[in-house]
Each structure stands twice: as C-alpha cells, then as structure tokens.
C-alpha cells in the first residue's frame, strides 16, 4: 500500500488540546462539587465533560481513520502535546467513576446525605 501524506491542521490540533482541557476541567469540577455533596451538579459536570470529550475523540478518530486508509501525516511536537492532553483526560475520566464512588461513600460516612 502506498502511503499518501496528509496535513494535520492547526485547528484540529488546538481543538484536541482545547476540548481535552475543557473536559478535564469539568471532571475536576465534578469532584469538587461532590465533596460539597452537590451530587446533581457534579453529575451535570460529568455529562458536560463527556460531551466535550466526544468532540476531542472525534478529531482523534479522524486521524486514526485516515492512517488506516494509508494516509499518514508528519507528527510534530504540537500534535504529540495534543495527544498527551487527550490521553490524560481519558485517564482522568477512567478514574473519575471510582473517585466519585469513593467520595459518595465518604460523604455518607460523614453524614452528609
């Protein structure tokens, strides 16, 4: 298969960074709200973060699809930085469910229910 070179736009790269950062901020906000026993508000922040994370993931999926089709791109430091942001946000999301469950248990033990 002959590879075709593609250009990754700065808009896509900065979109990955911005969407990932916004999602991560929502996840952190959710934990802070939960510490105050504001469960509904925390869950709304999680939903907001999930929605924004889908936007970031759509950009990444576009890159993966193009590469699977034999189209490659030169990857620079900025793209690596963007992928790092996305990976860290996904990790925060994976840990968030566990952390929220623990915080709810802590709140119950404190009698905050």
UniProtKB/TrEMBL annotation:
SUPFAM superfamilies: Enzyme IIa from lactose specific PTS, IIa-lac. Its cofactor is Mg(2+). InterPro entries: PTS_IIA_lac/cel, PTS_IIA_lac/cel_sf. GO terms for biological process: phosphoenolpyruvate-dependent sugar phosphotransferase system. It comes from the Bacteria. The modification Phosphohistidine is found at residue 81. The active site is at residue 81. Binds 1 Mg(2+) ion per trimer. One of its GO terms (molecular function) is metal ion binding. Mg(2+) binds at residue 84. This is PTS sorbose transporter subunit IIC. Keywords: Magnesium, Metal-binding, Phosphotransferase system, Sugar transport, Transferase, Transport.
